[in-house]
Amino acid sequence: MRVPRSAPLITGRSTQAQVARLGSAVHLKNVSHWYRSGHNSVRALQEIELEIPAGGYVVLTGPSGAGKSTLLSLIGGLEVPQRGMLRVGDHDLSRMRG
Prior knowledge:
By secondary structure, the protein is α+β, with helices and mostly antiparallel strands. It is 18% helix and 37% strand. The longest helix is centred in the N-terminal third of the chain and has 10 residues, at 13-22.
């Protein structure tokens, strides 16, 4: 799953106003995550930026292998991103150690 940096993930005045009023429930900045497969490295997420406002919701769609489950595992705290910043509420999950 590759999202161009120039593409806004939160659009519309009402959504931006909601983020300003309630804050972010989930905030990812330049998040990258990869796995080892034998001698190869498989990049599951590359420089993802995402902001989900408190009280907001998103729908994840994409083909198999696009990184949907990896993204959910990171947000759920099951894994730690190799690069970038990941906050869920007041918790910085990018600094968490397993």
